[in-house]
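User: Predict the structure for this protein chain, please.
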Amino acid sequence: MTASYQVRGSVAVIALDNPPVNGLSFATRQAAVAGLEKAQADAAIKAIVLTGAGKAFSGGADIKEFGSPKAIAQPHLGTLIQLVEGCSKPVVAAIHSVAMGGGLELALGCHYRVVAPGAAIALPEVKLGLVPGAGGTQRLPRALGVETALNMIVSGEPVKSEVVAALAGQKLFDKVIEGDLLEGAIAFAMEKADLRPLPLVRHLKATHPNPDAYFQFARNTVTAMAKNFPAPARCVDCVEQAVKAARIDDGIAYERNVFMTLMGTPESKALRHAFIGERAASKIADVPEDTPQRAIQAVAVIGAGTMGGGIAMNFLNAGIPVTMLEMKQDALDRGVATIRKNYESQVKKGKLKQDKYDGRMALLTTTLAYDEIKDTDLVIEAVFEDMGVKERVFKSLDEVMKPGAILASNTSTLNVDQIAAFTKRPQDVIGMHFFSPANVMKLLEVVRGAQTGKDVLATVMTMAKRIKKTAVVSGVCDGFIGNRMIEQYSRQAGFLIEEGATPAQVDRAVEKFGFAMGPFRMGDLAGNDIGWAIRKRRYVDKPHMRYSKTADLLCELGRYGQKTGAGWYDYAPGKRDAIPSKMVEDMIAKHRTELGITPRKIGDDEIVHRLVYSLVNEGAKILEEGIAGKASDIDMVYLTGYGFPLHRGGPMCYADQQGLYGVAQAMKKFAMNPRDDASFWQPAPLLAKLAAEGKSFT
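Assistant: Here is the predicted structure, written as structure tokens:
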């Protein structure tokens, strides 16, 4: 069912019914049109109530049809709104829960709007790199005033219905209905049944006392704040038309043209890919959505260091009791003090109320004994990244934890199957790789072992949503998805400085491309000693893998990064500003001389594509091996965990937009560089196959 029709007295009730948010799919639009026509033709019907079944009025476009021919097939949303506006009987929108995007645009076309308290109201299209496409930029300024409407449109953020209803002069909502919304809407519709003429938002005026100055100011502001995205500035252009166009239909036509133009931009394609990819990440091919899950009412965290404390905060924030375990009391005290300090900082900034802070701290307990965490439902190990240490922890957990408890490791590279083998319950073991700082970073890599139970996987994925993480499933391999790929990226960064680039040049090039931070600044932030430890392991495990020795030489100088005040860059005490280091430049120059390398000038384009395509090629191998279930999962890892530019959609999306044939050709060119790793630059079999067939990853 996509829309239901019922008669209540002399009122026809049309309820959009396309779960979960009543997306305005082609079939839903058809059913709504059929309902309107049926009500129009029935002489006994005096008024029409348009509402949404279930948990929403309407969330707008149906994402399952996004970008497909069905999204714009007739009757498209604009046609539906025209039919509503032209209806000879009053149409009342009964809004509850969610009215966003096309859902709000449809409501704006109705003659009247009643609303339940607490409904989320928004035009969020800008978050997909678009402007509203069915008259939202023309009608909302008429209903709410130009400045309020523009602020909503360029931010895309939802506003509660009672906040909107309280605005002076607003004409969006005719009535806020406490209690039963449908009964209230039917009663309201009967009150208006015989009143004529029928009011329309399109007949209102959108005015501003100083439009030229205001719109120029708004355009300058949003352009500066969203320099990589064209949509916010185009939202300003559209709202300006609401004020300046001779007729509203001229403004609607202008808006539609802008919408269709933006739909084809790489930025919008990237944002839509990310939007769909984030939702698709929770879908696991062989784990049905109705898989039974385990109850998680209490959590234990092993380790009170930076990671352990950050992990604990995620659960405390969600109202879940946490017991933190350490081997020594002073380590526990430091961990609790850090958590307290983090929360107190939020309180001082006004981001957290005192009572919330007190409540969260009350959920935290500490212990030095494994026996005191035995009844928790989920335990997460966050100890030193060493297999011997992990073995001791998991053998202890296996001895004390109750049957059915989930045993998770926060390992970033180690073999989860080997960790599971330390227990007699491998089906209960899973990887939960949080990213630092764990209480801030959105990404959670969920590592599925060979014997991890489907119920365990489903439970952890649901828990990730509860603690507001984007969870991506990875299979077991060294480094999983994110760190396995970043290793190739780091290798290329090392080769680039051997060949002639400077750390600052490499960082600038990729930051200009849109990365939050270049590889050398990232190394200094994370700690260069971490990569050093991994390379030492590689020299034993994979002696054929080539690395630049510059990073080892740096660590031998004790330059581990910000924590030592010196890394690839110099750092002033107490500051994080990266200052190019003469010592590092001299070290690199000496190393080049020892290798007999004459430095060459390297362009930014080569820097960017060697770094980004190294991610792509390794990502293709990860896909082919089944470590990642789909290309969008890889992109979500890089968008939410590694600072890949959102407007480029992730490495796999970016490669698709460049064209995989061209990507493969670039790799072959890189393989001809005698100072690079020619074997790595052979396009991965999946990449080569897709390129030859003219296909894409996504």
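The radius of gyration is 29 Å.
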